[in-house]
């Protein structure tokens, strides 16, 4: 089915005869992101405008307290200036040449927590890149309410310049200031064309390079001769020379190619920048990925993968990981430290079982802080950030442990300590009928899950796999290879224990334990060996019981992993001691 993508581009204000020379709604961040990192993000989690517009500052972009209450509020992200004097957000490279200062108008959405005492400082410059730039303050009517408001600067204030810069600054150590929907408009009665929200749509979604179509709605046409040019594709659709309201359509542009559309009539100019959509396929099951791509390429640029969030990218690494019983070809994928996530989609699965298998190598831990824990991969729902089954690593000295959970944080770690450079075969399984989420590490036929959990809310659909980066000091250098997604273990040449509960009827209680006694019941109620590990994987207790309980009063308050073996079967559970 065709995927539709919408981009908010150059939306004209409600003022009649206004043409927008510059517009920025701050995109839609997935989390609080510094300006420097946000610049490199992927739409819509990045600024709308690229070169020659340049953004800088020591504030950040946030999705909280989204703009509202004023006409045209975009409601996505906003530039946030914390309660620290000197915080600022700067925009360089706005070109106002060809217009008159009397017609140039500035507007922006504005919110301040201390509206009665702290107001943003707004300035402009035409030489911001100079060693000693000149900044001129702009006077405006202060925000006198605790709600978002639209600030409008009349004509005659902004200068005519090819290097116009705007700066929004925090003047005090009190007050949280937010800015959104910054626009520079040419208010010219001769310029009647008004552009609406630009849309892009993939013409097809295949494993090759597809084309897309751009639609630019407009009103106010039929009043003169307009010239429309595009940096790529074919211009068609309605003609604003003769049609008062319609759609300008650009066709035949290859996915991944951004375009610039110019609509002019005399002094009236309507530039539109279009960010190309990604026409990525949904991979059919069984799905096999051996990363047969050019070394050094961004993985998300390939047809099976897509990037989201900001930062450096997952890339293609030379060579394959090797593991006995797994056939390796092609190359591999690698990432390290902080950066963007990369996901691949597969046929949505809603019943039966689903298994995701891959080889992984924590190749370098030197950048990671000892004791730190982080996610590295996840099986997702149909959204690439709807994380369902999460894989973790935690540095312990010079080694690491592997963890697993339905949540994005965990204490559920396998006790085995592994070394950097070890190749680990990972199998993640989910049984829809029993709501059992299981992890096998280096499994052999018949092996019980290494770790398991029953999600608090049963999964309804699984449809993706994501490689996840966290921070510079928590995400080690990772190599991932030979990804497989299947609905039957036979496709992996494995026969594994298919549920978390490999001991029939296993139940431990109370949990948390507060009175020093842990009861362990099973269907067989036979002799059991019980081993308890702390969160670092150190064995802190080992006992055998035939009475279905053990004394854990010697354990300190905290979280542990208890391993229970009965009649040759072993299962692990998280144990909390109060």
Please give a structural write-up.
The protein is mainly beta. The protein has one helix and 43 strands. The strands form eight sheets. Strands 22, 24, 25, 27, 32, 33, 34 and 36 form an eight-stranded antiparallel β-sheet that branches. A hairpin with an 8-residue loop joins strand 18 (234-237) and strand 19 (246-254). Residues 1-16 have low confidence and may be disordered.
Number of strands: 43
Overall shape:
elongated
| Rg calc | 29 Å
| Percentage of residues in strands | 35-45%
Unreliable stretches covering 5 or more consecutive residues: 1-16
Q: N- to C-terminal separation?
A: 53 Å
Structural class: mainly beta
Outline the biggest β-sheet. 8 strands, antiparallel
What is the helix fraction of residues, given as a range? under 10%
Mean pLDDT: 90
Please write out the topology.
Elements: E1 4-6, E2 18-24, E3 33-34, H1 35-38, E4 54-57, E5 60-62, E6 78-81, E7 88-94, E8 104-112, E9 121-125, E10 136-137, E11 149-153, E12 164-169, E13 177-187, E14 194-195, E15 199-202, E16 211-219, E17 227-230, E18 234-237, E19 246-254, E20 259-265, E21 268-274, E22 287-289, E23 306-308, E24 315-317, E25 332-335, E26 341-349, E27 353-364, E28 373-380, E29 387-396, E30 399-405, E31 418-419, E32 423-431, E33 436-441, E34 451-453, E35 462-467, E36 477-486, E37 507-509, E38 517-521, E39 528-534, E40 539-545, E41 549-551, E42 558-566, E43 569-577
Antiparallel strand pairs: 1-15, 2-13, 3-5, 4-7, 5-6, 6-13, 7-12, 8-11, 8-13, 9-10, 9-12, 14-16, 15-16, 16-19, 17-20, 18-19, 20-21, 22-36, 23-26, 24-25, 25-36, 26-35, 27-32, 27-36, 28-29, 28-35, 29-30, 30-31, 32-33, 33-34, 37-38, 38-41, 39-40, 39-42, 42-43
